[in-house]
């Protein structure tokens, strides 16, 4: 329902505002900051609430209600899995203040003005001392938004990912994120969308407007070619001469026009038409045809990530699941994951410009199975390989960085720029080690349970071996008090038999797009960008490897 969607968006925005406020916010401060960000009050009536406290009371997973020493209510954020890292950084980060202004800052925080404030003097004191962001911080914000607009709820994570630290506006003297955006209103605009508040670089808006205003000339709008033959002018003169009456009586004039003259005029007309057609054909032949950019990928494949060592431990995230015998993972490698995120931001920035994007439109002959290219889905661009052509409008593509097949429009496809093909394909085809389905094929209940175990969390993978290019590994959830091994859970629930060996995946034998379209590591000479990072990660977990090995070899199975 619309109310449920609105509530979900509101939860994200409230969490983002409260996480950025290390000391929390009062209900009045939250109301004011929300108005400043969204340009309208909290939608209390739309959601059926009478007050802000009543609203946050219905967000127990988002907001913790505390009381200060003075008895005032303070709202603090409850971080979820995706924001725990940011919250930890915010909690540990110290606010830099000048020694001389410590007392002033303390008084200013205590006397924070709200819309119900009855102390205009304190408001004047605060507003008279408008803080200013350092030039380097302004540059960072502009750089962050230069690639693409950003939702307010995603701002903290994006800033942390790009610059390696949390954005702390209080250390620059600001009391809310609203003041930060207001101080940069000349370069950053806040727009309202269905997904929430969108931060947009004004330069980005101007560029989009300019692109929309540039008229696109087409062949149909081009002026007709003017024939250069002299017969046209003579023909027009003949028509003029023949159209002038030589006597008052029109009938007598027509009698004077001989059949020979009419034929001569008609021949001149036919000749001019033929010359015009010939001139137009010459123009079409001389017109430049669209050329494929020299950096467009035409006959290149992505390479895979380098293989992992047997029995090593590695952090993984399961990206796409067909069954416990067929799923795709991402390695939780800082270097590799950041490179993929940066690549997607850059691709969105480049291909979102119409002029640049049109240069990489794929002609019909290039839309063929096995072609490496990119496609736009929900305003993001993904590296894909064409798997099959369905009809004149649609193709099925394999997303090499996430592991799934998807049907897309041909018009969404573009040639991939050469340097976007250097990063290895990030999705690794996997099967759960040492298990097989009890009934011969995995039941719907078993698949659902496996998806639930893997859902949006970082897991520990214990590498067993590779079989026909598929990685067989054990998965373990270490976020609970006791480690949870997925093969044991499936066995205990009666969905799987632990067989002590790896049976080739029937699903991957029927179709393994990675084996079809992705080259093994080293064949393309560009896998070294992640080798060092993976090696460091493996070495960092060697201390735990022996423990995991003993568990797997012992009673755990």
TrEMBL record:
<dbReference type="InterPro" id="IPR002999">
    <property type="entry name" value="Tudor"/>
</dbReference>
<protein>
    <recommendedName>
        <fullName>Tudor domain-containing protein 5</fullName>
    </recommendedName>
</protein>
<feature type="region of interest" description="Disordered">
    <location>
        <begin position="102"/>
        <end position="122"/>
    </location>
</feature>
<keyword id="KW-0963">Cytoplasm</keyword>
<comment type="similarity">
    <text>Belongs to the TDRD5 family.</text>
</comment>
<feature type="domain" description="HTH OST-type">
    <location>
        <begin position="6"/>
        <end position="79"/>
    </location>
</feature>
<dbReference type="GO" id="GO:0005737">
    <property type="term" value="C:cytoplasm"/>
</dbReference>
<dbReference type="GO" id="GO:0030154">
    <property type="term" value="P:cell differentiation"/>
</dbReference>
<feature type="domain" description="HTH OST-type">
    <location>
        <begin position="129"/>
        <end position="204"/>
    </location>
</feature>
<dbReference type="Pfam" id="PF00567">
    <property type="entry name" value="TUDOR"/>
</dbReference>
<feature type="compositionally biased region" description="Low complexity">
    <location>
        <begin position="106"/>
        <end position="115"/>
    </location>
</feature>
<dbReference type="InterPro" id="IPR050621">
    <property type="entry name" value="Tudor_domain_containing"/>
</dbReference>
<dbReference type="InterPro" id="IPR041966">
    <property type="entry name" value="LOTUS-like"/>
</dbReference>
<keyword id="KW-0221">Differentiation</keyword>
<dbReference type="InterPro" id="IPR025605">
    <property type="entry name" value="OST-HTH/LOTUS_dom"/>
</dbReference>
<dbReference type="InterPro" id="IPR035437">
    <property type="entry name" value="SNase_OB-fold_sf"/>
</dbReference>
<dbReference type="GO" id="GO:0007283">
    <property type="term" value="P:spermatogenesis"/>
</dbReference>
<keyword id="KW-0217">Developmental protein</keyword>
<dbReference type="Pfam" id="PF12872">
    <property type="entry name" value="OST-HTH"/>
</dbReference>
<keyword id="KW-0677">Repeat</keyword>
<feature type="region of interest" description="Disordered">
    <location>
        <begin position="536"/>
        <end position="557"/>
    </location>
</feature>
<keyword id="KW-0744">Spermatogenesis</keyword>
């Amino acid at each position: 329902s619309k109310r449920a969607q609105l509530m979900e968006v509101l939860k994200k925005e409230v969490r983002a505002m409260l996480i950025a406020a290390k000391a929390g916010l009062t209900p009045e401060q939250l109301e004011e900051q929300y108005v400043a960000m969204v340009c309208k009050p909290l939608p209390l009536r739309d959601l059926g609430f009478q007050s802000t406290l009543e609203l946050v009371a219905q967000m127990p997973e988002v907001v913790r209600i505390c009381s200060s020493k003075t008895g005032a209510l303070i709202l603090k954020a409850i971080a979820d899995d995706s924001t725990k890292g940011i919250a930890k950084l915010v909690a540990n980060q110290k606010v830099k203040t000048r020694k001389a202004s410590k007392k002033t800052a303390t008084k200013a925080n205590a006397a924070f003005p709200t819309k119900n404030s009855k102390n205009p003097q304190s408001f004047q004191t605060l507003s008279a001392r408008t803080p200013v962001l350092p030039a380097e911080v302004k540059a960072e914000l502009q750089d962050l938004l230069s690639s693409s607009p950003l939702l307010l709820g995603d701002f903290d994570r994006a800033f942390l990912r790009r610059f390696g630290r949390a954005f702390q506006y209080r250390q620059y003297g600001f009391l809310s994120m609203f003041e930060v955006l207001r101080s940069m209103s000349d370069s950053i605009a806040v727009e309202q969308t269905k997904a929430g508040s969108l931060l947009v670089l004004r330069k980005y808006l101007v560029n989009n407007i300019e692109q929309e205003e540039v008229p696109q000339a087409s062949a149909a709008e081009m002026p007709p070619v003017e024939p250069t033959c002299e017969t046209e002018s003579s023909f027009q003169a003949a028509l003029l001469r023949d159209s002038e009456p030589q006597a008052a009586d029109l009938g007598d004039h027509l009698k004077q026009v001989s059949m020979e003259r009419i034929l001569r005029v008609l021949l001149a007309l036919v000749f001019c038409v033929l010359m015009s057609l010939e001139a137009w054909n010459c123009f079409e032949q001389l017109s430049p045809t669209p050329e494929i950019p020299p950096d467009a990928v035409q006959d290149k494949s992505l390479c895979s990530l380098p293989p992992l060592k047997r029995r090593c431990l590695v952090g993984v995230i399961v990206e796409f699941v067909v069954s416990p015998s067929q799923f795709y993972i991402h390695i939780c490698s800082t270097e590799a994951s950041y490179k993929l995120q940066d690549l997607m931001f850059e691709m969105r920035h480049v291909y979102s410009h119409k002029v640049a994007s049109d240069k990489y439109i794929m002609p019909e002959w290039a839309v063929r199975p096995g072609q490496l290219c990119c496609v736009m889905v929900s305003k993001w661009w993904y590296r894909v390989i064409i798997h099959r052509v369905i009809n004149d409008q649609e193709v099925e593509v394999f997303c090499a960085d996430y592991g799934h097949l998807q049907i897309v429009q041909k018009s969404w496809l573009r040639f991939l720029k050469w340097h976007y093909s250097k990063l290895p394909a990030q999705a690794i085809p996997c099967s759960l080690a040492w298990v097989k389905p009890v009934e011969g094929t995995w039941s719907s209940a078993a698949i659902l349970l496996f998806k639930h175990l893997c859902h949006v969390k970082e897991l520990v993978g214990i590498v067993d071996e590779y079989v026909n290019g598929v990685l067989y590994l054990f998965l373990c959830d270490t976020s609970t008090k006791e480690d949870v091994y997925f093969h044991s859970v499936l066995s205990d629930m009666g969905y799987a038999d632990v067989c002590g060996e790896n049976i080739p995946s029937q699903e991957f034998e029927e179709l393994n797009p990675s084996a079809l379209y992705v080259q093994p590591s080293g064949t393309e000479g560009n896998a070294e960008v992640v080798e060092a990072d993976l090696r460091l990660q493996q070495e960092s977990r060697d201390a735990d490897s022996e423990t995991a090995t003993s568990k797997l070899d012992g009673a755990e199975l």
